[in-house]
Amino acid sequence: MLTKVTIKLIQSLKDKKNRQLHGLFLVEGTKAVMELLASKIVVKTLFATGEWISLHKVLLKDNCELEIVNEKELKQLSNQVTPQPVIALAFIPNYDITEIDFSKGFSIALDEIQDPGNLGTIIRIADWYGIKNIICSKNCADVYNPKVIQSTMGSFLRVNVFYENLSAFFSAHNKIPVYGALMNGKNLHQTKINSDGILLIGNEGSGISDELLTFVTHPITIPKIGEAESLNASIAAAIICDAWARG
Asked: What is the mean pLDDT of each run of 10 residues along the chain (247 residues)?
């Protein structure tokens, strides 16, 4: 039976401080939940309608708590206007950044990306291009924000997202090429992006901070043809990632 304590806990996870306090986050929707169940992330509880459980029982894990809920209860738990028939309560994983060799392969670094939709889209873009690691500044949007999780469409399960002091990170990895997305960089169409390196995307409004500009070894810009003032951060990331993928 769904208790008031459980409802209060689930609703509290809309806030980052409570997600960090409890070490828990939410995933909504059949596709995302099924991918979650197939991943290494530990699911604490599934809240689902009886119909959903009947349809997917064969795929459920034995060590996962199961709570049958009705549509009214789902509305109390959900962050969406139209609740999905299943919501998973999962433990936030602890990824170890020291296990990653950033000198091999391509990664993305994000400097103060504030919009959850932008972060979620960039994670999805990384997944599309096979980029496994994103390093966020500590004041970026939280990857476990429900809006971020929703906009990744499950890609958060395949891309490692770390939160680091980017100045310290770049100082420790100073042999790796850093491609900074800037308004006054070298024309992207005339730039070959190495297979190994890091793409740095700056804040939606102010771009890359002065502190991090010193670490950019390859300033690049997407050539402008029309009259738009700027590009959305996630769109810029997609264009540059595509240029990288084409070699």
From this structure: 93 97 97 93 95 86 86 94 94 95 97 97 98 98 97 96 98 98 95 96 96 98 93 96 94
The answer for residues whose C-beta is within 8 angstroms of residue 235's C-beta and 6 or more apart is none
- Reduced to 3 states (helix: H, G, I; strand: E, B; else coil), residue 136 is strand
Which has the closest alpha carbon to 206: 111, 87, 69, 142?
111
What number of residues does the chain have?
247
Strand, helix or coil at 119?
helix
Q: Which two tokens stand for residue 244?
A: 């990288």
CATH of 97-246, one of 3.30.230.10, 3.90.79.10, 3.30.70.3550, 3.40.1280.10: 3.40.1280.10
Specify whether the CB–CB gap between 69 and 49 falls below 8 A. yes
The DSSP annotation for 207-246 comes to: BS-HHHHTT-SEEEEPPP-S--S---HHHHHHHHHHHHHH
Pick from 183, 191, 196: which is nearest to 236 by CA? 183
CATH classification of 4-91 is 3.30.1330.30, yes or no? yes
